[in-house]
Structure formats: C-alpha cells, structure tokens
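Journal club prep, notes for RB
We'll compare a predicted complex against what the paper describes. Inputs for the magnesium ion case:
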Amino acid sequence: MNALEIRNLTVAVNGKTILRDFSLSVPKGETHALMGPNGTGKSTLSKALAGHPNYKITSGEVLIDGTNIVGLTPDVIAREGLFLAFQYPCEINGVSIATFLRAALQSRLPKGEAFEATKFYKLLYEKMATLQIDKSFSSRSLNEGFSGGEKKRCEILQMLMLQPKYAILDEADSGLDIDALKIVSQGVNSMRGPNIGFLVITHYQRLLNYIVPDKVHIMQDGHIVRTGNKELALELEEKGYALS
Ligand code: ADP
Ligand code: MG
C-alpha cells in the first residue's frame, strides 16, 4: 500500500513507555491532522519515526510504501522519503542554510553525481521566495538567532527542497503570527498532491483553516481516541479535549 503506516508502535524514552500499541495510517495523497493536549506523545511519535536514538521503538512497525524503517538511522529514513519539521528546530552554528541543503540534496544522488550549483541556487531562491524568506538568509547559520517564525519557515523551506514522500509537521504553527501562518500554510499547500502524504501535528484548530485536512485524529495518553473529518477539529475547539 502506498502509505505511511504505523502499526502497533510502542516507544520508550529514558526507559519510560510513552506510546503503547499506537497505530495510524496516512495514505499517499492525503493530509491527516493529529491533535492532542500537551504531553500526550505527539513529538515522541514524530521523533521515533524519524529515528531519534533516544526514542526507542520497542515493538511495532513503521512502513513507508511497504518498507519497514524501524531500526534504520535518521539519514537512511530521510532518504526513504520521510521528512520531519521539528517543533523545536536546533541551531547549528557555522553551517549555512545553503551548505546544509546542498549537502542534504547531494546525499540523495548516486555516488559521483553532483548537484549543479546554478541549478541548486535557482531552486533555493525560488523556494525562499515562496516562503518570503530574504535571500540573505541562505548564508546565515542554520536557525542561529532566528525568531520562532523564521525557524518554522526554514523547516518548511527544507521540506520544499527535499521533496519527501511523507512529511510530518510537528506544531509548525506554534509561535507564528497570522501572516507567517498563511505563508507556511501556502508552502505546505503548494506541495500537496497525489505523490505526498502529510501528518500535520497541531494543538489548535486555527492552522487547519489554512491546511484543510482529509482526516483528523485526536490523541490522548499515547493513543488515538477519535478519528473524524475536518469538522472534528472544530468540535474539539468548541468543547476541548474532554469531548473524546
Ligand atoms: P507532546 O508533543 O504531545 O506535547 P511529548 O511527546 O513531547 O508530548 O511528550 C510526551 C511525554 O514524554 C511527556 O510526559 C514528556 O515529559 C515525555 N518525554 C518526551 N521526551 C522526553 C525525554 N527526552 N526525556 C524524558 N521524557 C520525555
Ligand atoms: Mg510536542
């Protein structure tokens, strides 16, 4: 099946089990929202899927179009086509956005093949323009001294450049004002189509006015407690997490 399939996943952090028997499937071409209160395990899920070594998958499977990625390293998982936009992107001093992205794109090519500089910069500046990021940012160290909103736009820039098969956006809306929220949403919407699946993690319904999901899942205490269509997010906004 062409999907990001999470099957009966159990994840432990520092010896403590956070997710138990968690299952969710995002078919290619669809956008699913995952909502849930703070501390319920949304970021734990996304980091475990991306292969973070501290988030141990103790049982279950994660399939990307049928290939199990459990146990693979983050770079291999990324090359399999999974992208994670972090809730809290880290700052990398001394590595410019351009250098970082060029290396990431280069690593996807067969050995000996080079990503041509002019082609790279044309693509980079085009995507930066989409996200209204000033060209001068390309030579700045990754996320260093960026505002919250600039960090989030930089995460989306990486996604636009890397063209993943499945993208997980962990609270891409946190800390964004309304204009930045619209820009980020436009960036995401510009990529939507039959060849990509999105898992949009968010606390608030607001983002889902701009990135309208095909399905909404509500998570509590490490489990999905309800699944519905986009109206479920509105109901949640009105009644709070007690509804589930
Ligand atoms: P959410 O993203 O839904 O707010 P998280 O996945 O960040 O939730 O956290 C879920 C639970 O896992 C919380 O109780 C949190 O304290 C715990 N947790 C997450 N990461 C770590 C970590 N690195 N060390 C210890 N506990 C962690
Ligand atoms: Mg989180």
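Talking point for the session: Helices lie at 42-50, 74-80, 97-106, 117-130, 148-162, 178-191, 231-239.
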